[in-house]
From TrEMBL:
Record's protein name: MarR family transcriptional regulator
């Protein structure tokens, strides 16, 4: 899951450092780094240095990675649609199933934060 989340995030936001990715995904930096190295070995991302004075390492999608990232983003769009339907229908099982993806779906603007207000009326808090 974290693999597809990283790909979708880089697709949506462009070049990012491992720390930025970890912050958005609410994951440990070391876990993100392990996944980025795996994506690098697969030829889906590349690491490069950015900045003249304050240099930092960032990751970007390769052309092959771009194709994989499109698929990952489509999968997240489908999850977002299912999550919105679950919120509207009060489907607690589906809400629980997608709880871990919620922050990413909001960060990628796939779920409108206003829709999440309906959760308060469902008396369902897992965040």
């Amino acid at each position: 899951m974290i693999r597809d989340s990283i790909l979708a995030l880089l697709y949506d936001r462009g070049e990012m450092s491992k720390e930025e990715i970890a912050q958005v995904l609410r994951q440990d930096v070391d876990e993100v780094e392990v996944n980025l190295k795996g994506l690098e070995r697969e030829g889906l991302v590349t690491e490069k240095e950015k900045g003249i004075i304050f240099k930092k390492k960032v990751y970007a999608l390769t052309p092959t990675g771009l194709e994989e990232a499109k698929k990952a983003k489509q999968g997240l769009e489908e999850k977002a649609n299912m999550l919105v339907q679950a919120i509207q229908n009060g489907d607690y099982d589906t809400l629980q199933e997608y709880a871990d993806d919620l922050y990413l779906l909001v960060a990628l603007s796939l779920v409108d934060a206003m829709v999440l207000q309906e959760l308060a009326f469902l008396d369902f808090f897992w965040i």
